[in-house]
């Protein structure tokens, strides 16, 4: 660093906390409660197009109608696309570096039409395939969060 | 029917990894003063200001208020916009709408960012849903990596195909004194660079940048009084869709005939408004928001420059290199400078310079039509077309 730059002052925001309190809504709460208490996935069906959204949403964007019909969704599904995250970054939820590497995928659970982004139990991209079957593995202690799912276990490897 | 509008002044800072010598307002002021000088104006000539950035990269809100001394917006109408990666292109479109409405004659668009002030990935994550996205999402790098894997799966494209884009844009940037990265890269260098998120490597990804850009939009009469040759706005279009970070990978969209719905839809609308039927033949230069190399393949397909899966062959043919049929990113693009809130507006600025014949060593000969894009959020898309000739009419 040159002398001129050394004299420039920067300041870090430090350990400051600014908590927020977010609402999951009726259906989001139902989804997280089922995940926490029963290790079950819940979706919601659009009365017009029939698409099942998981996690459940209150509105189908394309049809712009309200959704009310909750439906069960499997804890197994297939990989749509995947990556293995190996770069370091700060997880804003914890303020700490996210432990890397980890497998990461868009997963279509059986019975759902939307996808879920979640972790995989595999860090070698050569062992992951589009279409590979996966199954949710849950945490012992669950709090009503997407992190109640520890990761998705690959049921098949090449 | 909108009024005719042109870009008549452009300013930008040199894009750098870190600018600890200035705060946000001072950085903005550098670009604004350059744009006003370029347009032969003072701040008194400006009727309104549109400004944008992504607050969470700096952790400071309300740039519209705290930057007024530097932006020149003191006691003027000002509006602030934040639309993710499209922020810079959105401020350009909003400034254009102000003038095209007939209510304003000279509007200043400003985009800026100091990405050095936070962890970019961490900050990006905070833009998304706290329940469904944030606990799992790994920001733009991993989100784009999912896109790359899907693109390779659907088309058979390779990491080497993407490396051609990475090398092209880095080579182009060597001619651009404003670019952040000036690096000589080979295909082999890109392929051997470390994985950030497989299959995306360091060499495939944009840098984090500090920078600002300012562009003056003027009404027809004001443009014709300008010292600069007007770069006319031929038309703009934008589309937003998807709610959550997992939505863009939806195969139903592809099964229903869409490849990249937001970009295809906006391109289709804009080409129809302007009369573009063969983009590769009719567009002379394109400044595209390519946040990573694989985008330089798929976007060519979504923008209609070639068919689906033909992006790699188009790029390898040299058609998008300097001297090719439609050079892409003579400036080096976001792969060489990505001060996120400025990036879309820099695409607009570069198109104006190309049309005015003022792009220096990166000038494409005889540019009549130039295309700028913005990309952001959950695969959103802004598209703007500029022309050397005043359009007969402007369709909104």
- Helix coverage percent of chain A: 10-25%
Strand % of chain B is 15-25%
Task: Output the strand order for the largest sheet of chain A.
Answer: 10-9-6-11-12
Strand order of the largest sheet of chain B: 3-2-4-7-1-8-11-10-9
Number of strands of chain B: 11
Structural class of chain B: alpha/beta
Radius of gyration of CA atoms of chain A, rounded to a whole number: 20 Å
Q: Structural class given helices, strands, pairing of chain A?
A: mainly beta
Report a brief summary of the structure.
The complex is a heterodimer of chains A (158) and B (396). In chain A, 11% of the residues lie in helices and 35% in strands.
Could you characterize what this model shows?
The complex is a heterodimer of chains A (158) and B (396). Chain A is mostly beta strands. Chain A has 2 helices and 12 strands, in the order ααββββββββββββ. The model of chain A has no long low-confidence stretch (mean pLDDT 94). With 396 residues, chain B is an alpha/beta fold. Chain B is 37% helix and 18% strand. Chain B has 16 helices and 11 strands. Chain B has a 9-stranded mixed beta sheet. The chains are: A mainly beta (158), B alpha/beta (396). The interface between A and B is large, with 42 and 45 residues.
Q: How would you summarize the topology of this molecule?
A:
The complex is a heterodimer of chains A (158) and B (396).
Chain A: H1 3-6, H2 25-38, E1 41-45, E2 52-53, E3 59-60, E4 65-66, E5 69-73, E6 76-85, E7 90-91, E8 96-97, E9 102-109, E10 116-120, E11 133-138, E12 149-154
Antiparallel strand pairs in A: 1-2, 1-5, 3-4, 6-9, 6-11, 7-8, 9-10, 11-12
Chain B: E1 5-12, H1 24-39, E2 48-52, H2 55-58, H3 63-66, H4 68-71, E3 78-81, H5 87-100, E4 106-114, H6 120-125, H7 139-155, H8 159-173, H9 187-192, E5 195-198, E6 200-201, E7 210-219, H10 220-224, E8 231-239, H11 251-255, H12 261-274, H13 279-282, E9 285-287, H14 295-302, H15 311-316, H16 340-356, E10 369-376, E11 380-387
Parallel strand pairs in B: 2-3, 2-4, 9-10
Antiparallel strand pairs in B: 1-7, 1-8, 4-7, 5-6, 8-11, 10-11
Helix pairs in contact in B: 5-16
């Amino acid at each position: 660093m040159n002398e001129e730059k050394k004299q420039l002052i920067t300041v870090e925001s430090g350990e400051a906390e600014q908590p927020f309190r977010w609402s999951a809504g009726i259906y989001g709460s139902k989804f997280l409660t089922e995940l926490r208490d029963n290790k079950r996935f819940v979706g919601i069906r659009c009365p017009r197009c029939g698409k099942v959204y998981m996690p459940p949403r209150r509105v189908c964007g394309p049809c712009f109608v309200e959704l009310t019909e909750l439906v069960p969704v499997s804890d197994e599904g297939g990989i749509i696309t995947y990556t293995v995250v190996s770069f370091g970054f700060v997880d804003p939820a914890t303020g700490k570096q996210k432990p890397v590497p980890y497998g990461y995928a868009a997963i279509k659970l059986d019975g759902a039409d939307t996808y879920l982004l979640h972790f995989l139990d595999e860090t070698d991209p050569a062992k992951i395939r589009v279409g590979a079957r996966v199954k949710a593995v849950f945490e012992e202690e669950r709090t009503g969060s997407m992190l109640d799912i520890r990761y998705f276990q690959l049921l098949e490897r090449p | 029917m909108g009024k005719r509008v042109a870009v008549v002044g452009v300013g930008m800072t040199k894009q750098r990894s870190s600018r600890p010598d200035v705060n946000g307002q001072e950085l903005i002021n550098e670009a604004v003063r350059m744009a006003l000088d370029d347009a032969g104006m003072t701040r008194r000539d400006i009727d309104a200001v549109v400004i944008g950035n992504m607050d969470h990269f700096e952790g400071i809100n309300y740039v519209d208020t705290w930057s007024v001394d530097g932006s020149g917006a003191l006691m003027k109408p000002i509006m602030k916009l934040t639309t993710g990666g499209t922020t810079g292109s959105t401020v350009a479109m909003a400034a254009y709408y102000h003038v095209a409405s007939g209510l304003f004659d000279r509007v200043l668009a400003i985009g800026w960012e100091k990405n050095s002030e936070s962890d970019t990935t961490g900050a990006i994550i905070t833009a998304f849903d706290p329940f469904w996205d944030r606990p799992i999402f790994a920001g733009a790098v991993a989100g784009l990596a999912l896109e790359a894997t899907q693109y390779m799966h659907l088309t058979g494209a390779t990491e080497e195909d993407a490396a051609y884009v990475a090398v092209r844009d880095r080579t182009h940037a060597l001619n651009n004194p404003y670019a952040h990265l000036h690096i000589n890269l080979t295909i082999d260098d890109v392929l051997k660079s470390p994985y950030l998120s497989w299959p995306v490597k360091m060499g495939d990804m944009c840098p984090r940048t500090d920078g600002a850009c300012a562009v003056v939009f003027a009404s027809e009469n004001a443009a014709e009084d300008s010292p600069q040759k007007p770069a006319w706005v031929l038309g703009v279009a934008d589309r937003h869709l998807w709610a959550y970070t997992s939505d863009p990978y939806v195969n139903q969209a592809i099964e229903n005939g869409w490849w990249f719905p937001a970009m295809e839809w906006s391109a289709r609308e804009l080409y129809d408004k302007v009369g573009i039927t063969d983009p590769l033949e009719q567009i002379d230069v394109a400044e595209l928001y390519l946040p990573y190399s694989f985008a330089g393949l798929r976007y060519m397909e979504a923008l209609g420059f070639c068919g689906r899966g033909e992006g790699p062959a188009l790029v390898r043919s040299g058609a998008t290199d300097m001297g090719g049929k439609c050079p892409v990113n003579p400036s080096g693009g976001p792969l060489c400078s990505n001060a996120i809130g400025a990036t879309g507006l820099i695409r607009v600025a570069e198109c104006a310079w190309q049309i005015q014949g003022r792009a220096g060593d990166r000038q494409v000969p005889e540019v009549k039509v130039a295309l700028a894009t913005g990309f952001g959020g959950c695969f959103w898309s802004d598209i703007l077309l500029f022309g050397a000739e005043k359009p007969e009419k402007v369709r909104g």
